[in-house]
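Re: that chain you flagged

S.,

Sorry for the slow reply, it's been a week of failed gels. I finally had a moment to sit down with the sequence you sent. For the record, here it is as I used it:
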Amino acid sequence: MTARRVDGPALGCPDPTARVLVEAAFSAISRRYVLARHQIAAAVLDADGGIHLGLHLDAMVGRAAVCAEAGALSAARLATSSDLVAVAAVRYPKPTEAAVARLVPPCGLCRELLLDHAPGLRVVVHDGTRAALTPLAGLLPHKYVGTKWPAAPAHPDKETPQ
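Prediction finished late last night. Pasting the structure tokens below so you have them in one place:
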């Protein structure tokens, strides 16, 4: 049986950072796609140049599903306390769809979650013409800001400001 050839969205990324993230997410979902289980992969870039991947985990009960961005955020936080600078998510097409993967912006819950942990994060989105990095905060202009924790959490491996 011949594997289906699916075109990735990285060719539409003139920014090298965006292209690297999109290629990483596309490569991950190309290897791990399973119909009705894993359709999206995300890649998060940290300030040290590390790329952290996450995979969408669907569930029988939709509320229990986990987004790829949440998985990538968790992987990043397990690996480093460096600032997170950019994220991209790629959706793999179903067998009944055109064989073209596409960029997807984070859902509302992931926008909130990502901004809680990385307020300066940029996201790769398709602006109708091409892929571009844009501030995630611009996609969520009225983010909820609570008092649950300080805006800049102290990390055990970073010096605490005096």
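What I noticed first: The chain has a mean pLDDT of 89.

Talk soon,
D.
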